[in-house]
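Below is a complete specimen:
___
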Amino acid sequence: MSVSHVNTLEVWARPGAAAHFEQDLMELTTRLGTLPGCLEYGLRRAQVDQQCWVLNGYWISLKAMVQHFSSVELDELLGFLRRHSASIRFSSISASAELEPHDGVR
């Protein structure tokens, strides 16, 4: 299967974040990778800023990516990030620039 859509979440941890922050973040990321239509959900630390982690989700379709936005797994990740991170930035891209918006999401 080929990748149709990608979502990216950049997370900056608060100074002094708990030692288990990265481990907990990895566990939550792994759970997101099991969602229907997810080809992979990965986590890596940014090379330039060691307080920044980058999560990428690779999806077979726009529908699968949009459905994950209302999943219990994503809600748990966002709750964890609210408690432990200083800043979050989200973006998404598609393999086709000609896709029509779906429920207000591109």
Observations:
- The beta strands are 5-13, 38-45, 52-59, 85-94.
